[in-house]
Amino acid sequence: MHNMERWKNLRRSLLRIRWEKRLAAVSHEYAGRAIVPARDCGSSESGESNRRKELLGYGATLLCAGLLGIVTITLIIFIAQKGVSTFIGTGISVRDFITGAQWNPDRLLASGGPSFGAFPFILGSFVVSMLAVVFAVPVGVGAAIFISEISPSFGEKVLRPCTELFVGIPSVVYGWIGLSVLVPAIRAYFGGLGFSLLAGGIVLSVMILPTVATVACDALKGVPWGLREAAYSLGSTRWQVISRVLIPAAAPGILTGVILGMGRAFGETLAVQMVIGNVRVIPGSLLDPGITLTTGITMDMANTVSGSLWNNALWSLAVVLLLMSVGFIALVKWVGKRAKS
After folding, report:
1. Domain locations along the chain
2. pLDDT for residue 110
């Protein structure tokens, strides 16, 4: 045993001596060499050219960013200025405008004068958007789970391209299909006129489905693979891994897709206008016709004169829609920050 220890110590000494000799040889080899910088005849010219290109690129990107900011701020100020004109010197309060249920901008003074109540528009937009989310989220998340976890090869090659193909279909096509197929079906099986909030919600759900499915699929793929392996190593089944590990981990990304889909649902106009009925009253049920902010603006914008009270009221509807959009964007940013933290 003592001889073995001596042999190990001798071997370590030999290795150390060999390593020291190698370092000494390398140091002696480079000791006499003078470090001479590489000479390039065009180094000064190329450096000046690179600096010029860098300044040019910086200036171009700064100009684009500044132009984008100026356009955004100008647009917001213009819409806000037009919308606020409704409440200046007219006797119409913001509270009455938001909570009012009567929209009669062309009513005569003998009958009480014009009234501007935007509550039916706001309620219709919320109800239709919520219906679209209720219909689209389960289907979109289910499709994302199938694409990313159940059958990735078939899902990525066939199902995901087919889902993304819905984005390229124009809104008028969705509206025409809803008008030709969905409205008669609702009239036949559920009663009513067929033009209803339900029809608008179903049409919007198909339109926002690609957004929800694509974002949810990316969120599921972004979950670290180690979480799956850890869950499987504990004896979890595939559905337990999906329901208890993947979906909770990808919940912020899935919620972001849902919010983006809601934002698109709020801003959609033509397809909803063709199937919702466009009645300026508070609906009593989902089978009753209604109206949204976007459809109300597009229907009345051609009947007004610029600068009139009716025209300013439509701009006020646009302000409400803009505030909703800003709220959705802020919600997406907040969800993204929570996901990072």
Report:
1. 126-293
2. 67
- Is the Cα torsion angle 46, 48, 49, 53 positive or negative in sign? positive
pLDDT at 19 over 60: no
- Separation CA 174–CA 207 (nearest Å): 8
The H or E element containing residue 115 is strand 115-116
- Exposed, middle or buried, 234 (CB in 10 Å: 0-12/13-18/19+)? exposed
How does residue 36 score in pLDDT terms, banded at 50, 70 and 90? very low
Residue range 300-329, pLDDT digits in tens: 887 888 878 888 888 999 998 888 888 877
Q: Give the closest residue to 320 by CA, choosing from 293, 295, 299.
A: 293
Name the fold adopted by 126-293: MetI-like fold (1.10.3720)
CB-CB contact of 146 with 159 (8 Å)? yes
Among the listed residues 136, 135, 141, 99, the one whose alpha carbon sits nearest the alpha carbon of residue 116: 99
